[in-house]
Amino acid sequence: MPFPSHRPRRLRRTPALRRLVRETTLSPSQFIYPIFVTEEADTRREISSMPGQFQLSLEHLSLLADRASELGIGGLLLFGIPLEKDPLGTGAYTEDGIVQRACEALKRSHPDLLLVTDLCLCEYTSHGHCGELDEAGCVRNDETLKLLAKGAVAQARAGADVIAPSDMMDGRVGAIRRALDDDGFSHLPIMSYAAKYASAFYGPFRDAAGSTPQFGDRQAYQMDPGNAREAIREMELDVEEGADMLMVKPGLAYLDILHEARRRFDLPLAVYNVSGEYAMVKAAARNGWLDERRIVLETLTAMRRAGADILITYHALEAAEWLT
Ligand code: PB1
Q1: Which of 202, 275, 282 to mutate to test the pocket of ligand 1 (most atoms within 8 A of CB)?
Q2: All domains of the chain, ordered by start, with CATH?
Q3: Is the pLDDT confidence value at 210 over 90?
Q4: List of residues 6+ apart from 25 with CB closer than 8 A
Q5: Are 232 and 259 in contact (CB under 8 A)?
Q6: What's the pTM value of the predicted model, to 2 decimals?
Q7: What mean pLDDT, rounded, does the chain reach?
Q8: C-alpha span between 153 and 158 (Å, rounded)
Q9: Catalytic residue positions?
Q10: Cβ neighbourhood burial of 136 (10 Å; 0-12, 13-18, 19+)
């Protein structure tokens, strides 16, 4: 029987009723907070294009880890900013690489805080690409796999809890899985940036990490924004190669991909609420055009509703404060 027997507004009448029947909820434990660790000593430098986000040196990590732990954040995602870069991105896989050193420091100070390490070469290469280049300036896929495998082992030895390859090389999950297993780390999971698009939404990150390609772009290895079926194929390949968690990235403009991935795969599914999405919210809020708290919680709820179990977001600390 339709109206007036059925009145959907009955369940919206009070905050308590709306809370009771809410289908999608947020919790700080679902958040992963990305941080930028710089090799530069005693540094806490705000990133101009990402207000409220900082390049932090090792000395400043403990305070941030305290706050993340107190707020019940699910974990940290570590990005490195080395003092020196070279064509082969050595800092990504040397024992004293900045992310490796940050892992060691955080494991000493906060042993229970989950550490996810982003594995890629772009922050460490002088040319800014995500791998080793050939004479024509194209990324050499299979040679790069060897470097990524070394990086995964270096991160594992430094105490990483999850390895997250963001390079988009073909076959990288299998190569990393084999390298970890061969080095006694068969217990460490891989969170694959499985469906990662060549997106304009990464601009502020490249500003923060100094990882803008010196020439060309990432379209020969990151996915074309026009492709949805291809994302499923990428995810299927990563599952076959041994991924333990899958990620869709960016988030807001790719909720359709997220929803289809949720429909197809049972693995834990992460979404990356990237730097450009963060910067847009901050800019609009600073201009008084949007209610920041409401739009952040609405955005994160949308990503959860679309199927994400895990939300990688620069809003993590603020959102956790608003939620608690
Ligand atoms: O927040 C962001 O924009 C994340 C950017 C992301 C980090 N994994 C990549 C951006 C890029 O392609 O430059 C880094 C690629 N390894």
Answers
A1: 202
A2: 26-323 (3.20.20.70)
A3: no
A4: 304
A5: no
A6: 0.97
A7: 97
A8: 8
A9: 196, 249
A10: exposed
